[in-house]
Write a structure and sequence with these properties.
With 827 residues, the protein is of the alpha/beta class. It has 20 helices and 35 strands. Strands 12, 13, 14, 16, 18, 19 and 21 form a 7-stranded antiparallel β-sheet that branches. The chain starts with 12 loop residues before the first helix and ends with a strand. Bound molecules: beta-D-glucopyranose. Residues 52-53, 106, 153, 232-233, 358, 492, 587 line the site of beta-D-glucopyranose.
């Protein structure tokens, strides 16, 4: 693959750098705000704006920003196994960025699914480096064709979240090259991304932001990459080591470890000025590429709104395409004909359409599964709530509260400074507010006053979330006065998982809730390595998310399950929606189990026993345990399906569009039954002992019991006969030609996958190519699957270079390695 022709660099950036003095140059190398950079008029540099994230462009505000389109999550998009899909997503995200005048989108996330416990897997594509790299490259090409920069993240070996600011991923050079760097290498080679983000963690004892080996030697050196390397937010800990270690830009700003310290390092000779010049050149090259240097780009005025019909249609189609049919006994799916349907489960009513953390956006609406199926089935549908699925109380949904001043859903918020002056009083459509971060207030908020009217009365769970001293009152009577301290061993965790406090009260509809938060500065908490991160310091000064909690008091699980059983008994079919929540699928923390939270398994067992037929919809991005799998008729995995989620689920269930997804990660049978499991660093070290045997590679080698479902598995609504398979062509990476027949009565899409089992005993099986094909009912098609030469190499540690595999071995044509359809011996 050759990279697309790059944007022509019209300006001699070296010449521009030569016109700046040292202090000016260094100033450019730290952000100006949370998500913007400094401009420099003297050389025609406009301030650039960056925004998260991989599946939706949030804008410049961490919470409470404008409405933007919420895409299906990364695993769901990847499950289509389609570079065309990834390309289209890149283009759509670029349009979302243009609408908001954002120059660089902070995605795609291309870390791998190593342990299924990783909290952030929902944001990344797969456990496979080829699938990840190729999809990332297509996404980048789609985005950058519109002159919006992409940012591959997080370089490198950032596969879990626990103690991410302090932990050290210990990875062999072989595993780095063949597995963890490979998606970056593929994307750099095939799409020339204009920026990359260095991770929080250390790699083999050196911070990713200071990794001379990875950043300078490999990425900028061997691969000849010309883009800008920025740090993850608050990840940079040093001045000279980071500047010398290949980092070009510290984010966020305005403060950080560079600034005057880096100027001094240059003056003392610790950092040559040429190193600074090189960083600035890369920054200016990025600016040139995104139209922020010289003649500035013009932004479109006729952008597609996030809720425009065309966008809705795209998001709905993309979500359905990635959904995976894991079981379909007796062809119960797609649902046809008449009959009544009982839909059960908290995820039916509160469908989880996105994961947590920095990938979150503020969508114009989210269609729940209940709403989607109601629109499709009308009064054939009955909906029953399920068991509680959350451990921590959530910020109040906007519909649970009304602004006492405007009457709109949401709350009234006042930011007060240390002198008692109200700096900002406004309506907030959300019940959460961020203080000390990306606000544009003149002075720090000292007190935050939240007020709202309750939309419903009865037993209410009332509370607050966020660090500081809270006083909560109901209709003028104090309910509580509580001090909440930051939690979490890692500052990222403290920020994204603020402390929560709740109490249950009896309240009337329309009661006034007032929550006053006084910010208390605590001592910054040093990390387990004894260092203080700039983020810890910010958190200690009160920065973070603050929210009002209002929720109905949950009903006991046995009562909920009994009501569900009652409802499904009288229906022709039961659909149970189960899943994870952003408590598990989020940034800065990992999971500890793959079991569904709450008593969801009990609910499914009970429904399956009572219903005539049961379909389970799994609303999670990543593997869950399904102890009831054999008791139900069908299982559809719907990922975190974005704002059109419920409609997309209805389309998939009813076969209005085929759910063509194939798993992007193997699903273990039990907790611990995976080639890599533990995500708790020991003495801050996390050893990647699985080496190159990640995911299905390790399962296939017998390093763990066979998974319940392999990467690449997924039935769709077709049925496939593989009529022939042969290796065609010679050379280092031959093509495989396969004839497949769709033996089903419906048109369908197949994903023909080819894996290489090398002759070398120490080498794992690996995906080397795939091709998707749409085939009409009863018809056959000849499919060519080119294999990727980059998977036919092995890293030779002794020679410190790429070597070749031994001749021989075989190619496996498979629908996931649990269903191998042909084995082709290689000479
Ligand atoms: C995440 C990045 C994200 C950044 C900015 C960090 O916490 O790790 O992926 O781009 O925040 O929000």
């Amino acid at each position: 693959m050759t990279a697309p022709a790059d944007h022509p660099d019209q300006t001699d950036v070296t010449d521009l750098v030569g016109r700046l003095d040292l202090a000016t140059k260094v100033r450019l190398l730290t952000g100006a705000t949370s998500f913007t950079l400094h401009g420099e008029d003297s050389i025609g540099l406009a301030p650039m704006a960056f925004s998260d994230g991989p599946t939706g462009v949030r804008g410049l505000k961490f919470t409470g920003g404008d409405h933007v389109a919420l895409f299906p999550n990364a695993t769901l998009l990847a499950s289509a196994w389609s570079e065309d899909t990834a390309h289209e997503v890149g283009e759509m995200l670029a349009e979302e960025a243009e609408r908001q005048q954002i120059h660089v989108v902070l995605g795609p996330t291309i870390n791998l699914h190593r342990s299924p416990l990783g909290g952030r897997l929902f944001e990344a594509y797969s456990e496979d480096p080829l699938l990840t790299g190729r999809l990332a490259a297509a996404y980048v090409r789609g985005m950058q064709a519109k002159d919006i920069g992409a940012c591959l993240k997080h370089l490198v070996a950032n596969e879990s979240e626990t103690l991410r600011n302090y932990m050290n991923s210990v990875v062999s050079e072989e595993a780095l090259r063949e597995v963890y760097l490979l998606p970056f290498e593929i994307a750099v080679e095939d799409s020339n991304p204009w920026s990359i983000m260095a991770a929080y963690n250390d790699v083999n004892g050196v911070a990713a932001t200071e990794q001379d080996h990875v950043n300078n030697e490999v990425v900028k050196g061997e691969w000849g990459w010309t883009g800008l390397l920025m740090s993850d937010w608050f990840a940079t800990k040093t001045s000279a080591p980071a500047a010398l270690g290949g980092l070009d830009l510290v984010m966020p700003g305005p403060d950080g470890p560079w600034g005057e310290a880096l100027v001094r390092d240059v003056e003392s000779g610790a950092v040559p000025e040429s190193v600074i010049d090189e960083h600035v050149c890369r920054l200016l090259r990025l600016a040139e590429r995104v139209g922020a240097l010289g003649a500035h780009r013009s932004w479109p005025t006729d952008s597609t709104a996030p809720d425009a019909p065309v966008r809705r249609g795209q998001l709905r189609r993309l979500a359905t395409d990635g959904m995976v049919v894991l079981r379909n006994e007796g062809g119960v799916l797609p649902l046809t004909g008449e009959g009544t349907v009982a839909l059960v489960g908290r995820h039916a009513l509160e469908t989880v359409c996105m994961g947590g953390g920095s990938a979150q956006v503020n969508p114009p609406y989210e269609v729940s599964i209940a709403e989607g199926l109601r629109a499709a089935l009308g009064n054939r549908l009955t909906v029953v709530d399920g068991v509680e699925v959350r451990e921590r109380a959530l910020p109040a949904p906007a519909t649970a509260i009304r602004d006492p001043f405007t009457g709109e859903p949401g709350l009234h918020v006042e930011h007060v400074d240390a002198a008692g002056v109200v700096m900002l009083a406004e309506h907030s459509p959300e019940s959460q507010v961020t203080t000390g971060w990306d606000d544009s207030l003149p002075r720090p908020t000292q007190q935050l006053r939240l007020s709202a009217l309750l939309a419903a009365g009865g037993p209410v769970r009332l509370g607050c979330s966020g660090t500081g001293r809270w006083q909560i009152s109901l209709d003028g009577t104090e309910v509580a006065s509580v001090d909440l301290a930051p939690e979490g061993a890692d500052p990222g965790e403290s920020m994204l998982k603020p402390p929560v406090w709740t109490t249950d009260v009896e309240a009337a509809q329309g009661s006034l809730v007032e929550a006053v938060l006084t910010i208390v500065r605590s001592e910054p908490k040093p990390g387990p390595d004894g260092t203080l991160s700039t983020l810890s310091d910010a958190i200690a000064s009160g920065m973070g998310i603050k929210a009002l909690v209002v929720a109905p008091v949950p009903a006991p699980a046995d009562r909920t399950i009994a009501a569900a059983v009652e409802a499904v008994r009288s229906a022709d079919l039961a659909i149970v929606a189960v899943g994870l929540t952003p408590e598990q699928e989020t940034e800065a923390t990992d999971k500890s189990t793959l079991a569904l939270p709450g008593q969801q398994d009990e609910l499914v067992h009970a429904v399956a026993a009572a219903a005539a037929r049961t379909v389970v919809v799994v609303n999670s991005a990543t593997p869950v345990l399904m102890p009831w799998a054999d008791e139900v008729d069908a299982i559809l995995v719907v990922g975190l399906p974005g704002q059109e989620g419920g409609h997309a689920v209805a389309d998939a269930l009813l076969g209005i569009r085929e759910p063509t997804g194939r798993l992007v990660t193997s699903w273990p049978t039990a907790d611990g039954a995976a080639p890599a499991w533990d995500v708790e660093p020991r003495d801050l070290r996390l050893e990647y002992t699985d080496g190159t045997f990640i995911g299905y590679r390790g399962f296939h080698a017998g390093h763990a019991p066979a998974p319940a479902h392999w990467l690449g598995a997924g039935e769709g609504y077709g049925s496939w006969a593989y009529e022939s398979a042969e290796v065609v062509g010679s050379g280092p990476a031959p093509t495989v030609r396969v004839r497949v027949r769709n033996t089903a009565a419906r048109d369908s899409r197949e994903v023909v996958q080819v894996y290489l089992q090398p002759a070398d005993q120490d080498q794992p099986v690996r995906l080397v190519g795939w091709t998707g094909v749409q085939v009409a009912a009863g018809e056959s098609a000849e499919v060519e699957v080119p294999t990727d030469a980059r998977l036919w190499r092995r890293w030779d540690t002794e020679a410190a270079g790429w070597g070749t595999l031994n001749p021989g071995g075989s190619l496996l044509v498979a629908r996931g390695l649990g269903d191998v359809r042909a084995t082709l011996a290689l000479d």
